[in-house]
Amino acid sequence: MSAGNATLEPLLTWLTLILAQLERTFYKVPGSAVIARYVRSSHQNDPGRTVLELILIVFAVRTLMQSRSRDKSEGKLIKFSEKEIDELIDEWTPEPLSAPLTEWEQRDLASVPVIAGPNGPKPKILSTGKTVINLASYNFAGLAGNEHIKERAIETLRKYGLGSCGPPGFYGTVDVHLELERDIADFLGTESAILYSQGFVTISSVIPAFCKRGDIIVADRAVNFAIQKGIQISRSTVRWYDHNDLKSLEDVLISVEKDRRKRGTPITRRFIITEGIFERDGEIVDLPKLIELKHKYKYRLILDESISFGSVGRTGRGLTELYNVPASQVDMLVGSVANGLCSAGGFCAGSTIVTEHQRINGTSFVFSASMPPLLAVAGSEGISFLRNTPSALTSLQENVRAVRAVLEKTEGIAVVGHRASPIVHFHLKIPCIANGSANGIATNPTTVMPPPTGPSFDYEAEEKILQDIVDDALANGVFITRAKRLRGQEMVETRPTVRIVVTAALTKKEIEKAAGVVKGSVAKVLGKRKA
Amino acid sequence: MAILTASRSPCSLSPSPRSQDPFWVKKRYSVTQLPPITVTSHLSTVHEAEVHSRSRTITRTPTPVHSVTPSKTSGDSVLDESDDHNLHAALTSEKTSNTVQSEFGHCANQSYRYISQHNPDKPVAEDEIEEPPYYILFTTYFSYLLLVVIGHLRDLLGKRFAKSSFIDLMIHDGYAPLVSDFQSFYARRLVQRVNDCFYQPISGVAGRTILVYDRYSEDFNRTQTYTGTTTRALNISSYNYLGFAQAHGSYADAVEESIKRYGVSACGTRLEGGTCDLHRIAEALVARFIGTEDALICSMGFATNSTFIPALVGKGCLVISDEHNHASARIGVRQSGACVRMFKHNDMGSLEELLREVISQGQPKTHRSWKKILVIVEGLYSMEGTMVNLPKIIELKKKYKFYLFVDEAHSIGALGPHGRGVADYFNVPPSSVDVLMGTFTKSFGAAGGYIAGPKLLINSLRMHGHSGPHAEAMAPPVLMQIVATTTSIMGVSSVDDLATSKSTSHQPTFKPSTNGVAMSEVEDEYLHPGMVPASALPTWFSIPSSLADGSEARERIRRLAFNARYLRAGLKKLGFITYGHPSSPIVPLLTFNPGKMLMFAQMMRTRKPTPLAVVVIAYPVTPLVTSRVRFCVSASHTKEDIDVVLRACDEIGDILDLKHGKGKRWPIEEIVKRSVELVHSI
Ligand SMILES: Cc1ncc(COP(=O)(O)O)c(C=O)c1O
To answer: HSE of A434 in the Cβ direction (CA atoms, 13 Å)?
Structure first.
């Protein structure tokens, strides 16, 4: 000990000297006495405070350094004097907030029919007062206007009021929401489900809740707009495969794995994202094959059943029922209560881990009010209707066949999609071709663009012709619609189509008659075009 | 039952003294005895209401509210069936004025009213942030540190010795973990400890009181076990500002009628077969309500931001966003592809500085000038209770030529003398804001949101917003709730009926819009278009006269304003630190320490005789140190309800050492007694 002291002695004296020197210079700085007094007094009052202040100083310095380094990384700012800045501000003229609609867009907006009174298989159109046959609204199993559901909704209103007045976390979880979640999980055969208050935002929240930066998403090139937005927000690495082509999917899966091996990076989360029935064209994915691939390459599957839930399978359980695949094989099964059960909202079904994770990380679940209780009850009633009325789905399938039979024989249009799909799209057989080059580049999983398929279409011209068909059908008592697209915002522009939504609420005769009207309108409009 | 006679019983409001109040007598008369009338024939009733209300203002006598008489219990089917709690009788007692006490409390005393309005002679006050003593900050940081260290230790040991419970966090079977342990650390190790404060299921209406399912956890909040019982608690948490969350009363009646007529679903998107006449009617009403040329309605408030902001801005545009903006706006901006910069919360200096920088510098790298700049702010910030300094922003807007987007999710209905939001509060014309967005989830007791603005803009959004072609249209019952509530706030004018309807033409001199059916103490001379013509409403909508003359809703607006100011002022006088604007119905009470926050919620929940349902929020929604309790005051609360809240806070605040505010303190009894003075003093 003493030996140590002896060796330290010169060092200590030197330190004291230095300290004394420092103290003297410190007191020479103007204002330093005040600081010294402050430190001394504060220390006397509260030693803990000194420690805290020291920590705060360290923090402050760190923050300062950080903010400085951030400035640097943002690139150099040009130095301006205040006067120059004022001049620049005066000179700057922003674009208008919104451009006026084009003439075509105006017509498009004005041509959206407004229904007077309740929507259903035979609604009344406000402008004409005429009752029409509805092949535009989602009413697959014929739940719209169901009297029992209305009664239950009124009962719920009288117990729960209308709005829930809070997000699920803050007293917005009403027992009927939990009941609907349980009903959905039971119906599909998954461990649990989580309810979102709008169908569209559901999948755009589910995807970023799991897929983070650095994760890998392999997705179909023709996924719907909501999925596109979800993928965009996730910031994951995306690889694309050809629309509904599982061979192409497998190629991509192999190449991703090869890529990973080559780089020697550790395993990250990998997801396949696709739709059950494609909203865009009514194609149906081969689910058993998809499940096989997912297991083989160890991917998780996010399946959007917004169209197929409530519309295919013996009792409307969707694709898993159609193909007799247990729903628990799909990791995140997303569906729409609004479309499939004629209510509102959407859900994600899966394991408890999957749903519980979303209760903290599903942005539009956490940061939005839960759906009105009476709409949740309407959803539950819809499920029990589907369970008890398999005949609804049988007649839906018959009606689908009837519609397709008529349309497939119609000249001038091409009916696309799977024959079991309750949404039937058709586009013009002879395209309107725009001048210019092809609309794609070589097939490549890193881009969403499909391989070139020939000349690009004149979208607006085709839309106009299809709208003429729609308008003519409406004038003749059949309500159909173009599949509306956000042109310019979609990742890939798709060929304009007319979309027919088949419903079980109409008899086969009525459906055939309606399809006949559409056939007539097509013939009329296309006939005029030739002439 | 014993508590009913206790003098401090909060919610037992006596019917007897009230019946001497001419206001109450009239009101009861007009609502329960008059048959509901249809729009086309209500002119004479409106007039009658005017006469009544005039006489009411003259003969008004303040009601003693503190006197307590046991309330009689009447069979209310809704609450009887599931509720055996002892508060039941008190809270659900009589059904007066077509409303139920458990949903909407009665408060007849006209002095418990306030008109929330900015005083134009005074500058807009800066938000003052009161700082707690250092030891509070120190212990708060320390407790987080402790939680983090313990959490990591548990992870470390757990992964070694209890592999099975960590299987989901590790690579297994060739799959990467669904959620990495790093991402879920916060949820597992911090949130789980306070989990019993969140996601508590309820039953019934989230009105003045709320029926909460009892539950407990045996495994440290990993799972919750439900006992099957419920507890009725005073609800100071729901966004039910104007108290429109009601299963009974005229609004629910209107909704019931709409279900009978329209069913429950719109069955499609707005552009593809889901638009019905009720959408048009509601949109026109909302435009009128806000005071803009046009408005659009979206079926979800979150989606109103996240799907329409991308239609406003895109590449080459800049969004300047308040740092406390709601997640929905952030998602919307991210989807739009525009650049984003943030400014310090509600700090106009910081905003101006940023504006000068970004306009002079232009776009990053290229230094090209921005196509447009959109400033996104909220009217009332949901976590802070602060109010945007709208006059200053509008001044800046003139100079810097940016576009202004105000999210009025919380402020619409809740602020301003006419319930028309921040613009109304500051008395600036709504047209001085480019895009007015808001939601119906809060003040209106409905769901969904709107965007209001010039027709050109709204039509462009209808076509280019994501919701138009892709999201389900709003359901008819929800639309009807919006129609009924906005109508009642605006009041129905019959001016244009005079021209069309012969049956009413015998009263040509009656001009409600200038006379002010409203018999309010202040003369109505404001910029918003006032009443709604009857022709703008569904023909089948039968409106009780108290709704048609706007008096019912006006009461709500003023009660809310009183309650909001009273709670805030009371908490201040008790010595608590609160954030936000004096008129804000959102009142955050700072607890700082996360442990205290948890305790506070639990003590409130289990409090006798009146349990209170409160919302607590902590990091990451708030900054790390400022964990808080957030009260949301409602018009459905009575003054006595606020007394209860204050008393509870007083006691719990002492136990948990939460009173760190500066300024003079009053004892609780004095606060309760001098409440009116207090409300007018801040
Ligand atoms: C500022 C703000 N904007 C938007 C929303 C979303 O509204 P909704 O709950 O109706 O989806 C909220 C809700 O909390 C909000 O506070």
So the answer is: 12
What's the confidence (pLDDT) of residue A61?
A: 67
Query: Token pair of A396, please?
Result: 């839906």
Catalogue all structural domains in chain A, each as residue range(s) with its CATH number. Answer: 103-143+391-442+452-530 (3.90.1150.10), 147-389 (3.40.640.10)
Residue owning the nearest CA to atom 10 of ligand 1: B301
Which residues sit opposite B532 in a β-bridge?
B492
User: Which fold is adopted by the domain B250-489+497-549?
Assistant: Aspartate Aminotransferase; domain 2 (3.40.640)
A531: which 2 tokens? Answer: 């002439």
Determine what percent of chain A falls in helix, strand and coil, rounding each to the nearest 5. 50, 15, 35
Say what the ipTM of the complex is: 0.84
Listed in sequence order, the residues at least 6 apart from A462 whose beta carbon sits closer than 8 Å to its beta carbon are: A427, A428, A431, A432, A495, A496
Lowest mean pLDDT among A340-354, A359-373, A387-401, B130-144: B130-144
Residue-wise pLDDT for B222-277, tens only, equals: 888 888 888 999 999 999 999 999 998 889 999 999 999 999 999 999 999 889 99
Predicted local confidence at residue B198, as pLDDT = 85
Nearest CB to A97: which of B183, B271, B434?
B434
Q: Is the pLDDT of residue B94 over 60?
A: no
At B36, is the pLDDT very low, low, confident or very high (cuts 50, 70, 90)?
A: very low
**Nearest residue on chain B to A136, judged by CA atoms?**
B273
d(CA B92, CA B90): 6
The answer to whether B415 touches B443, Cβ cutoff 8 Å, is: no
Tell me what pLDDT residue A400 has.
93
Nearest to A237 by CA among A218, A209, A258: A218
Residue A247 clears pLDDT 60, i.e. is over it: yes
Q: Is B533 helix (H, G, I), strand (E, B) or coil?
A: strand
> Which residue's C-alpha comes closest to atom 8 of ligand 1?
B301
Cβ–Cβ < 8 Å for B115, B647: no
Question: Among residues B573, B667, B578, B555, which one has the least CA distance to residue B631?
Answer: B578
The closest residue, in CA terms, to atom 15 on ligand 1 is B409
Nearest CA in chain A to B195: A169
Bridge partner residues of A332 (DSSP): A302, A350
Q: Do A154 and B260 touch (CB under 8 A)?
A: yes
SS3 A201: helix
Farthest CA pair distance, chain A: 114
Q: Ligand 1: distance of its center to the CA of A26 in Å?
A: 55
- Between A309-313, B4-8, B89-93, B592-596, the lowest mean confidence (pLDDT) is in B4-8
B291 within 8 A of B429, measured Cβ to Cβ: yes
Which among A49, A267, A269 has the least Cβ separation from residue B134?
Answer: A49
Which residue in the set A75, A198, A378 is minimally distant from B264, CB to CB? A378
B279 touches chain A (CB under 8 A): yes
**For residues B496 and B506, what is the distance between their CA atoms, to the nearest angstrom?**
14
Element (H, E) at B215: strand B209-216
**Angle CA B625–B626–B630, to nearest 5:** 155
Taking the Cβ of residue B173 and every Cβ of chain A, the question of whether any pair is shorter than 8 Å is answered with yes
Closest CA to B641 of B26, B213, B87: B87
> Beta partners for A416?
A425
CA A355 and chain centroid, separation: 17
Distance, in Å, from the CA atom of B214 to the CA atom of B226, rounded to the nearest integer, reads 6
Amino acid, res. A393: L
Mark A28-64 as b/e (b = at least 16 C-beta within 10 Å).
eeeeeeeeeeeeeeeeeeeeebeebbeeeeeeeeeee
Highest mean pLDDT among A80-89, B123-132, B401-410: B401-410
**Where are the domains positioned within chain B?**
134-189, 250-489+497-549
CA of B327 to the centre of ligand 1 (A): 8
Model confidence at A13: pLDDT above 80: no
pLDDT of residue A453: 61
Mean pLDDT confidence for A197-213 = 92
